Amino acid sequence: MSIQVLERAMILLDELAKQSEPVALKNLAAATGLHTSTTHRILNDLVVGRYVERVDSGLYRLGMRLLELGSLVKGRLNVRAASLAPMRELHKYTGQTVNLSLQQGDEIVYVERSWSESSGMQVVRAIGGHAPLHLTSTGKLFLASWEPRQVRAYVMRTGLAGATRNSITQLELLERELAQVRRLGYARDNEELEMGVRCIAAGVYDDTGKLLAGLSLSAPAERLHDDWIPVLLSTAAKISETLGYDKQR
Prior knowledge:
Helix content: 40-55%
Number of helices: 8
Structural class: alpha+beta
Strand content: 15-25%
Largest sheet: 6 strands, antiparallel
Strand order of the largest sheet: 6-5-4-9-8-7
Shape: elongated
């Protein structure tokens, strides 16, 4: 799609957003200054993508895809805001680096962290940094939430490239690891992304029960204690509850 077409599509979406009721094709064309045939062609493409909905009598209104995308953006903004205070408390309790990460394609992206020089980490990954799903504790949470066919497709796309001698680079081993994640309710990174650094992660869920983010503790390998797992899980659960998640539902 050309830049000009994208600009025209955005103009049409903006015009539809101004209207409280469905709008006729000719009225949209007149309001935007676009030719009727051009308007019709672009609207058809937007209907296919569910950005626009065609209702009875040839009228148009904004589609459900925009609501889905808006909810996704809202959720991502909300999870960061809801996590800040609990992350600071978890860092204060453990003295170790606390990360909040989201899935982005075949990687996780770090969106927030709480840490200090006393954490003892050789490398603290910057906010906005990313890493492959299978090499991180949070990434494994997302992979564990997928169907087996989706995991196999991920393996085909990425080749399960390793970063250290501990990296999981075989499908059978990854499937075994993901089964354990599902059973335990949390995930580990045993020096798989970086030697000398271990992580544990618990999931953060939205009001629909969807895995939205991963809350992880990162520490020098010798400092990461399993005694911290319950407080990590309870902190992630607290954030999830703030976002409307109800485990009993």
